[in-house]
Amino acid sequence: MGLPVNIKELLTGHTVEWERLEFKAGWNPEDVLHSICAFANDINNWGGGYVIVGIKEQDGRPVLPPQGLPANQLDKIQKELLQLCYLITPHYFPVAEPVEYQGQWLLIIWIPGGQTRPYKAPLSIGKDSKSQKVYWVRHFANTVQVRTEADEQRLLELAAKVPFDDRINHQANISDLSPALIRDFLREIKSNLAAEAETMPFVTLCEQMRLVSGPPEYLKPLNIALLMFNEQPERFFRGAVIEVIIYHDEIGDQFTEKRFTGPLHRQLRQVLEYLRNQVLQEEVQKVSGQAEARRFFNYPYDAVEEALANAVYHRSYESQQTIEVNVRPTQLEILSYPGALPPVTPQMLTQARIVSRDYRNRRVGDFLRELHLTEGRATGLPKIRRAMQVNGSRPPVFEMDEAHSYFLTILPVHPDFVMRPLTIREQQILRYCQQPRTRKEILSHIGLGASPANSTRYLAPLVELGYLAFTIPDAPKSVKQAYILTDKGSHALA
Question: Which of 209, 231, 253 lies at the terminal end of a domain, its last residue?
């Protein structure tokens, strides 16, 4: 049965951090048992991990091509794996799939963070074993035994806290999940499970993807399932919304507001597309004595994308407060609640890099990484700083209060960004187009004939700038075509 990940990207470490991957050249039941226990304990809330059997490891990286496993041993190994899982206390069962890769067979074992942590596994499963069971955890890229009382207490305190996105939602039912959204996701990430999902019973599919939990008579969706695969997650999580407010003056009396709802990944993409079309603008300046013009944006897209993805990933969905994107004349602000988890402090936000791997939403991060919407490797803030620097912008500002009640990202507008001033005739056109107007009506309004030349000279540039839009965008030459003022055009008029 397929796994809900892209196998090729998994093996190259593109969608899952290397610390969450463990490669084993051959089948070693004891080592595999310890690794399953460690990933299930998920002490850092990374989201568990993967054990890949059939690939040799060198310095934490796979040695390719793989040496593989004998095809005639795969069934036997999977049966042995099942018996091993009964040795874990409480019992824990991962998801395993034999996969053919570069002509060799591998066994990929997916071990999500467990719902009933912490788990123990035997020190040894040999004949001389006394069946002593101990805790196992992941420390960087290694599976290690918990040896000290202090470490054991820390495991008990941390591991007992299941992240909110991985908890059962008792107010929802499996019928609240959309089969179409789930199958679209699997097809987009090119999962091997996509083909099976077309005919597989829906409950089985949800179980395979770890979207539901509970006994058969009380099977309920997890919060992550509702956040990603329900058309209206705001019904269950009032704050699962992104609001964009574009201010047209410094005072804030004039503004345009838009609210985005729906599955998290769809929200994120729609907001980014809206900002790209309505807010982000490129300036081209010719440089004397230089062939190439100087190009820069008011806000670099990479910085906006990373800042917004971080807010979606790291906010709390227990909070009823929405993510706010405030576009002001001098800066773009992204506000989410609450702030970063300790040990991150407000003072640390000024550092070039922050090392913290305690994630609030381990499953949200997994799904966004599969869709290439975030990296989840503590690279978010450095990436934003780098994008702003490359664009020639001033450095971003990251702000959080001592109570960790909010997180604010401020992207200053490029200091040299100058919006081309509108001519009087352009202002007349834009104001006239606050209602849909035909080409003939517009040109007549400014005292010109409805010739193609006048349309090309006066209307086409405003469409190209995004200040005017077609009312029938799919048919620009339609006889019913008209022009309408956009939010971006309103901003230019202000």
Answer: 231
Quote the strand ranges of 311-451, DSSP E. Answer: 323-327, 331-336, 397-399, 407-412
**Among the listed residues 225, 229, 368, the one whose alpha carbon sits nearest the alpha carbon of residue 309:** 368
Sheet holding 133-139, edge to edge: 120-122, 133-139, 142-145
Assess if residue 405 is contained within a domain.
yes
Neighbouring CB atoms inside 10 A of 374's CB total 22
| Residues 6 or more apart in contact with residue 38 via CB below 8 angstroms | 136, 137, 138, 143, 144
25 C-beta neighbours (distance < 10 Å), count: 16
Q: For 129-165, how does the pLDDT look when each residue is reduced to its tens digit (9 = 90+)?
A: 556 899 999 987 889 999 878 778 877 776 667 889 9
Q: 248-260 as b/e, with b when 16 or more CB fall inside 10 Å?
A: beeeeeebbeeeb
Handedness of CA 352, 355, 357, 358 (dihedral sign): negative
> pLDDT, tens digit, for every residue of 75-126?
999 999 999 999 999 999 999 999 999 999 999 999 988 888 899 999 998 7
- Residue 107 is assigned to a structural domain of this protein: yes
pTM, whole model, 2 decimals?
Answer: 0.71
In the chain, the number of structural domains is: 4
For residues 395 and 253, state if they share a domain. Answer: yes
User: 380 is written with which tokens?
Assistant: 């978010």
pLDDT for 201-248, tens place per residue? Answer: 999 999 999 999 887 778 899 999 999 999 999 999 999 999 999 987
Q: Classify 395 as helix, strand or coil.
A: coil
Residue 279 φ/ψ, nearest 5 degrees: -120, -50
CA gap 15, 24 in Å, rounded = 19
